[in-house]
Write a structure and sequence with these properties.
By secondary structure, the protein is α/β, with parallel strands linked by helices. It contains nine helices and four strands, in the order βαβαβαβαααααα. Strand 1, helix 1 and strand 2 form a beta-alpha-beta unit. The relative contact order is 0.19.
């Protein structure tokens, strides 16, 4: 079975991907979303989860927020090392949301407007802070403020995920996640079952 498995820091990422992935993945590929209870839980269990995964054709994407970690590349390497310790590291990719998952949403205010049914948010996209939201200190705070507290992590992520534009380039970390999904999809489709 061709399967793409996501190891996620939290349930909000699962909610977003539940509504985003059906628009990306071929019907020939199944996906599984495994949400942990925060970054420490993810890091503690990642090696064991990947090692014990029974589908030999599975490919893995680890998605974690950068949060306040000062060095994104070092964080990514630490997670890759945990993947390699599973013995299946060549089937894994790590993606970091700079700074938080909400950065993806701030990069596409049209999707936020549609998902949360709030008028005139897309017009704010041209302001400097929303042109390059990967550099914001607290994207979740910005999003809550911008939506006047209507954004809730899980339900908001599910609704916004339905409308996120796959070709959005305002968030390099979102673009890298989408590229990883497409790359692993190509790998999976090339497998002769």
């Amino acid at each position: 079975m061709r399967e793409l498995v996501f190891l996620l820091e939290e349930p909000s990422a699962r909610a977003m991907l539940e509504s985003l992935l059906p628009r990306i993945l071929s019907e020939e590929i199944n996906f599984r979303l495994i949400a942990f209870e925060g970054k420490q839980d993810l890091e503690k269990q990642i090696t064991r989860k990947i090692r014990s995964y029974l589908n030999h054709h599975a490919r893995f994407i680890v998605l974690r927020d950068q949060d306040s970690h000062p060095q994104c590349q070092k964080l990514k390497q630490n997670l890759l090392d945990l993947c390699h310790a599973s013995g299946k590291g060549t089937h894994c990719m790590v993606r970091i949301a700079c700074r938080e998952l909400e950065t993806f949403y701030l990069a596409d205010l049209q999707a936020v407007e549609q998902g949360l049914k709030i008028r005139d948010l897309a017009s704010k996209q041209s302001s400097s802070k929303f042109r390059s939201p990967d550099y914001l200190g607290s994207p979740s705070h910005e999003l809550k403020t911008l939506t006047k507290q209507r954004y809730e992590k899980v339900s908001g992520s599910r609704e916004i995920g339905k409308y996120l534009k796959l070709e959005n380039h305002r968030s390099p970390s979102f673009r890298n996640l989408i590229a990883a999904i497409y790359r692993l999809q190509r790998d999976l489709l090339a497998i002769d079952l």
